[in-house]
Amino acid sequence: MPATTIHFIRHGQVFNPDHILYERLPGFHLSERGRGMAHATGRFLAAAPGFRDIAAVYSSPLDRTRETTDILLEEVNPARGKRGLDPLNPHYDERLIEAGNEFRGKRIGRGAGALWYPSNLKLVLDLSKPSWGESYRQIARRVSDFVYEKVEEYPDAQILAVSHESPIWTFRHLLETGHPEHNMLRRGTALASVTSITLDCGSRKVLGITYADPAAGV
């Protein structure tokens, strides 16, 4: 029974001393700690037998995910070379991008960026669109499109997909509960963590979901 596993990896910590909601804005890069997180997760991927046969690597096109992907491959590709495998090169896919957010560019929790700011209350009270312009259903739809396309394209293989907290958790929640709506404060997707989802290639049935946090000590 052929099955494909998509390993979703969240990017490392971002350098953001002003606590700006950066969303899809350019110019937000990994912090030194974030780079350390990506290296830790890359070493985890390079050493674990279950990750040795990765067929392809995809990434959100944003700065922080590109940088995380490059660091992961710095760790993974030498290990592949020792096994006589060709190096992996990243592909960028807009469907893995961060959720659109109407608070972009504002300081989190201050002034116009505060959830209790009068004009923000309507955004917070709508559970299907809590604080951003893109609904959970829209996020789940684009991530699902990516996943099922790759299951068909890479049968019985493993794929790395470097993305963001909201897309990763929204898709996982959809698979586990049947709906993408969730409490954003209860997500289980740490920085540089690995959420692995295995799907049967024929039926698309979920065969397993596992989670690892290799950078927890960084």
Automatic annotation (TrEMBL):
GO cellular component: cytoplasm
One family name in Pfam for this protein: His_Phos_1
TM annotation in the entry: none
Molecular-function annotations in GO: phosphatase activity
SUPFAM superfamilies, per database record: Phosphoglycerate mutase-like
Domain of life: Bacteria
Protein name per the record: Phosphoglycerate mutase
Originating organism: Bifidobacterium [indicum] DSM 20214 = LMG 11587
